[in-house]
User: Fold these one by one.
Assistant:
Number 1:
Amino acid sequence: MSATKCSRSSRIMAILFVVVAVTIGAGFGTGIIVVPGESSAQGPAPVAHELNHIGAWGRLSPRGEVRALAAPSTMDAVRVARLNVVEGQRVEENELIAVLDAHERRQTAVSHAEAMLALAEARLEQTRESAKPSDIVAQAALIASQRQELAQAEIDLTREESLRERKASSQSTLEQAKLKRDQAVLDIRQSEAKLESLKTPRKTDVVVAERQVDEARAALRQAEADLRLTEIRSPTAATVLRIHARTGERVGERGVVEIGDVDQMYAIAEVYEADLARVRVGQPARVRIPTLKLEVAGEVERLGFVVQRKDIFNTDPVADTDARVVEVWVRLGADAPPAVAQLSNARVEVIINVGGTR
């Protein structure tokens, strides 16, 4: 009889244990209203408490999240020629973080392109300008001399025509005088055309020279773009969180460095999709950081647009690992200690006050 009672008592206790476990797990699994309980080393799941709160697991992240800076995908087997930063260093926007091994070769290409552009521009200027003043003066003097020759040729032709009328000269001599006069006229016309070309360059020559300048500028832009591919620069003001490739090392899939703006930290909470309709921008929140054993205030700043599977899990054996969640960005308040800046990706417990009061 005693053994039967003990067996029955054991079955009752087992049933009660299962009911309590399922109740606790279901309360957090539905995202209903939670406040953090006492944290253990494993970080237990928040416990359901009030209808005006939603609880969720989350992770700490710097403003803009952690960014991995890597070499361009068009470059294979690159190495770091020079690394300019250390972990924890503050960098400004566009600051040079690292230089890859192809940098010197690309710099030489830029210098060559600059020289070719300067040469093309000089040729264009030379084409646009008229000839040297001394050349123009010399050509004008030649024309003056040729006009004197023409005048003398006309005098000689007039005399030969008079002599021919009196039968005092031959027809051949008269023809030679005419030919000399006609040649003098042709020489003057050619010289005058050359003088005009010295004063005004041909339009086609200028157009060709201009196109050569355009080509040289395009080559310089290409060389400068290739040079930028060998430089790793910070896209924003941030802090260097981790270095993956140092001087002399090959750049791998993780890139060269990871950076983040830790001046403002966020808790990215994974809120169940069923609870998202109750979350609004501006709602107050509390963020428990088990690593530091403290809790800081926060405020919902942004809601995600993508429903996804959970990335952060607790140690509850009945937790819903296939739950669908949406990320919610909670901005940490001014009471967050400086130590939070060193805890990117640390797991946190987030309590959002959907009732509108703290």
Number 2:
Amino acid sequence: MKNFKKLAGILLALVMVLTMTTSAFAATIDQVVTDTTDKASITVTVPVSENTDTYKIYKVFDAEANGTNISYKLVSGKTDAPKGFVTDAAGNVFYGTKDNEGNITPNNASELSTADIEAIKAYVTNDMLVATVTTEKNDSSFTVDNLPYGYYYITTTTGTLVTVDSTTPNASVEDKNTVPILDKEITGATAGDFDEDGKNAIAQIGSTVTFTVTINVGAGATNYVFHDELTSGLVYNNDITINDGANLVEGTDKDYTIVLDNDQTDEDRDTDADDITVTFTEKYLSSKTKNAQITITYTATITEEALNTDPEKNTAWLTYGNDPGDGSNTTPPSEVKVYNAKFTVTKTDGNEQPLAGAGFVLMNADGDYYKLTGNVVSWEADIANATEYVTEVVEDVAAVEFVGLANGTYTLVEKTVPAGYNKAADVNITIDSKNYTNSNLMKSQKVVNNSGSELPSTGGIGTTIFYISGAVLAIAAVVFLVTKKRMSGAEEE
């Protein structure tokens, strides 16, 4: 019995927790009309998403129903119906047209036209709002009870129209508006490489990088505005193209409008207006169906501002729908990063002391030499045109740097050798692609110059042997001459 009571208590606690959890994630309903005679309801099935959405329910017309038949009247304060609807002398509302004699011709269409929906949108006012509903993350539906019979117009912040429907007595509708999806990738680099998912690249300073944004259109698309920000090491090249199978056309009465902000002198550029803002026209969006794809492509040049250990970032996002002003109608930002590498050479002598006067050049795998002009890297076939860095001793260190490098294999060549030292051997370094760690992007190498050894002398007796040999030869010559003279004298006698 005790165990049963414990089990019952645990179950009761779980029920209370589940109840609290469910209420925490349930939609918030702010209802103007709370108690009516008719007791109608509207249940809306909503698309499950990570976002919150706000729904507004407007009563367009009053209604009277007996379970089978229904008639509509203008709501209080209205003297006429929206375009597409007409009233008779008794104030009844019909969907159709009326001639000059007052004869009404019903419109038997099963759905409202786009023009009729726009007319209702313009017709409703805030005093016709009967409920505001805010859904929470992962909500799948909500129900608004205690509504008077009527003809209702429902909107959402995701899109514009959810439905126009009657409560007879209850209505069940589905919100087919869906949230768009945006993704940005690096799809090209003129000097460098990028990873498989396009989120990171290693690229050379002065080269260009291609960015591609993909927008998957949601159902009920409206008010799509594309935003793009680049950090100061990336400069937009004014070459945007927008395509959905065919190139879109810029213009307020066409497909999109664009606003650019590329002020590189701005010290706080990253917090200013978007660098690229594209607003898609409602005319264009109305032609798009769910899952239609819009592709935005452009390039940017990597500038000297990128000469640091932090990557340059390019961030894009999309605002959409009827934004309530709290930022909830914004896609998650999609960010890509562009890195460049640096090679530091430290010069010492054989005694580990910093050594000045050593000049270095860098050669790539093609046999061309590194040149840095105005913080733009290029490669020269002739070593005479290469950028040579000569070491100086600063704070007990003699070092030079080659900056703004893409991935690849390079060879360090000592072009100028300090007087009194032997030339150091060439050094090979490799900057791996798709490796964005500091150990790969910030290579370093110590290069040692050893002084030359004094060549050996002849050694031993040195030059003495030459003096002795010379003296012997001289004495021999004298003896020879004296002997010859005596022999000549003897013959004469």
Number 3:
Amino acid sequence: MKKSLFILAAAVAVLASCQKTPEIKTNVTEPINLDYSGGELTVTVNANGSWVADVDPASTAQVYVVPDTGEGPAEVTVSVAENLTNDPLVAVIRFTCTIGAEGAITTIAINQGVLTSVTWGGVEYPVKKMKDGNFWFTQNLRYVPEGMTPAKELTAVTAGIFYPIVVNAAQTAAEFSEAPEVIARNGYLYQAEVALGLKVGDLTTVEAAQALEGAQGICPPGWHIPTLSDIQGLVGKTALIENNPDAPYFDGTNGSIVKLNEDGFNMDAFGAISIIDNTKTTGTFMGWAKAYPAKLSSEMFCGSTCAKPLNSWYNTSGDPNSGIKNLQFYGFMPMTNKATEAEYTCNGSSVSFRVAAPVRCVKNYVVDVIR
């Protein structure tokens, strides 16, 4: 009996001496700093037993680890989703190796930045997530499509892109400006077809115009020309459309420039070139009025949702076969022809496709399912 107990004790001692201490580490020794866009990282895990990866519940960044379990050394993919908030995000990934009742832990820290600007065509544009949940350019586009030159003549009714306009020195009318500081502040003025990525004259049917809703146009990849839904979701009011009282910048009566600008949208009445339809051979400056001589007080912005077809859109009223005379897209119409800034409005409006107006871009939302 004593001999048997001695053999059993010896076996237990030998087994204990062979039991490994759990060990685990990764090739990441410093916090990982990412920009807002996130991305995928390959992480090498060195473990001497079974391991599990999990994301600390206090993490704010959206992080996925594949595979999240393993046995011994392995490579894993750490995927970090876009930061679609206005705040920096963080995450901690724990890798735990377990052998028997014992465990060892190592961690990876991730710091993720905020989307504050986008560089396009060599220009950096500030962007911000507004209270509607969308990221918007907070500055007008000044992108010149390849092969195009901004026009500065009102007779250039098919130029596609025009210099911005300002009030002249005598405060008696509007005029074009080629000053770099004006271009930087106001951007260029675009006719709808160019804003939507085409050339003037390319749109010949209502159906083709309707198909352009949400088009990237001259915006950067991943961004688009605002849709009616974007406009209504932001300011809440568009002519002939039921108001959206839940829009964050709707003041109960109109979209409010003051409310927009309190959140950094930098909206103003930048002026436009009015060209009523494709039969016109000259345009007119839109924005200057005798009642407010020191400033531009109205304008329009380009949009991508085609407005409801009207008979007057055709060369022969009511006859689509006669060809397109005019098309309209829903855009913005800021108005500062009021006594006080508190009354300035920014509502949606239908904009004729030959009008030349500023452009703001809206970020696309693409939900990636990571399996």
